[in-house]
Amino acid sequence: MEATQKAAPKQQEKKAPKAKGTSSIGIKDAIWVIVICAIIAFCNFFFNLGSPSNFVDGDTEGSPANIWGTIFKGGVIVPVIHTLLLTVLFMAVERVIALSKCIGKEKLATFVGKVKKNLKAKDFDAVLKNCDYQGGSVANVVRAAVMAYKEADAATGIKKEVKLARIQQAHEEAIAVEMPTLTMNLPIIATIVTLGTLTGLLGTVVGMIKSFQALAQGGGGDSVELSAGISEALINTAFGIGTSWLAVVSYNFFTNRIDKIAFALDEIGYSIAQTYAATHTDEA
């Protein structure tokens, strides 16, 4: 009798099973993405937009002959904003692919339904097979909770409340491991939301300074210099606002999707714990 009482505390000290390791989904070193986008933006600015064919008489100092020449007149701020724009587009595509892999092959509702059905039947092997087929972060979280469920189901001499706590702990630890994968690179998009507008505003100020300098020369001012300053101001304003608009839409879309995944994970964890509570009695 005393041996049994001494064994119980040792079982209680046993840690909850860790989540199955997951392969990193997404781009870790996003700085290289920004560098590549910057190279593309500056090459496009100097060799495409700055082509002599886009200007009257083939002189970049003269009047633009088309819209591309007008954009080139926006100045060096233009490729900076284009770098931010390309970064948002690239990160948006990356997050779409990454989140799809995190969710897995089947829809969350279908996957959760199978897990609940197999748990009620105590068919742990079927649940784990579903996790293997599903793949991704959601399946890893479910796997960790189910493994804790399986160990709690096999353990004896432990109170029901302790077993439930272990299942919930395993579920929470698995979410803590997988959540960084879901939110990876979102801070970059969030930064560009503000940075795009500020960079466009900087270009606007620089353009207006050039316009006032042109007006100050000889009273009437040089019409070419004046138009160049106005173009720089307006073009940078337009591209800055457009970049921030796209970044805001992308950021809100992905945060909303991540919130839905997090809610589904909480629902799964709650369902697993409630299933155990409903099908087991206190053994201690």
User: Oligomeric form of this entry?
Assistant: single chain
Structural class: mainly alpha
Care to count the β-strands?
Answer: 0
Extract low-pLDDT stretches.
1-23
**Level of helix content?**
over 70%
Distance between the termini: 13 Å
- What is the average per-residue confidence, as pLDDT, rounded to a whole number? 82
H/I helix tally = 10
What general outline do the C-alpha atoms trace?
A: rod-shaped
Instruction: Report the order of strands and helices.
Output: HHHHHHHHHH
| Percent range for β-strand residues | under 5%
Task: Give a quick rundown of the structure.
This protein has 10 helices and no strands.
List the helices and strands and how they pair.
Elements: H1 2-12, H2 30-49, H3 67-72, H4 77-103, H5 108-120, H6 124-134, H7 136-154, H8 160-183, H9 186-216, H10 223-279
Helix pairs in contact: 2-4, 4-9, 4-10, 5-6, 5-10, 6-7, 7-8, 7-10, 8-10, 9-10
3D structure, described in words:
With 284 residues, the protein is mainly alpha-helical. The protein has ten helices and no strands. The chain has helices spanning 2-12, 30-49, 67-72, 77-103, 108-120, 124-134, 136-154, 160-183, 186-216, 223-279. The chain is rod-shaped. The protein starts with a helix and ends in a 5-residue tail after the last helix. 35% of the residues are buried. The model is unreliable at 1-23 (pLDDT under 50).
